[in-house]
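[User] I wish I could look at a protein chain and see how it folds. I have put the entry right below:
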Amino acid sequence: MSMSPQKSLEGRVALITGGASGMGKSSSELFAEAGAHVVVIDRDREATEGLVAEIEGAGGRAEAAVLDLTDLDGIASTVADVGERHGRIDVLFNHAGSVCAPGTGVTEADWEIAAAVNLKAPIFMTQAALPYLEKSDHASLIYTASIAGLVASPNSPLYSALKGGVVQYAKSIAYSQGPNGIRANVICPGTTDTPMLPSFFSKDKAEAEAGMARFLEKVPLRRIGQPDEVAQLALFLAGDASSYLTGVAIPVDGGYVAG
């Protein structure tokens, strides 16, 4: 007997990085509504603990894990703590990311921080979680990349390079870990209504708005996506409805990459 969509993650343990804001927050809330025990991983203590309180107040199950994803020891200890206490990890959603320096004149410091958050962190989160994912009968790895991981980013080649790396890493994990029953898939959002969105276009508010307007002219649906539209895909990839789906990168972009 299959479970209702509303409780498609009942009893499962799900870790979500960057889980306290934007698309990550929507995913944390939706996963909890679906019955998961959600581990909200974020560096913002106030937002993380506040979201956990909201989830629990609504009858869901969640815990806060305040973590700077540039701390590799912190990644290892946080994942091990969750895995040992629960006996397994069912879902790891590597969602956290950051904007990157624009143009071709990036500094070494630009590279270090961008690579640490966008590529290094999900790789080390995955490595730490694999022994516990192997103990699950429903193991699902999900990565947030970007449409910039599928097509060129004229504003930030560095961002495209790193997000392209996420896509290829996830596909490689899907291929190598499939025999262990672990699936791995990638979500590639386009323009999505989150606090980080304007910074992709400019630090200046007026320039950012103008840049978004020009970009939306190339989006067939002619609108910005909403965080819950990404979260719904994450929920699908996390649960059994996608049980034969692995190694794919799915754009959630209003049709932008179709052009």
Summary: Residues 1-5 have pLDDT under 50 and may be disordered. Residues 203 and 209 are 10 Å apart (CA to CA). DSSP finds seven helices and seven strands in the chain. Helices lie at 22-33, 45-57, 72-86, 108-133, 157-177, 205-216, 227-238.
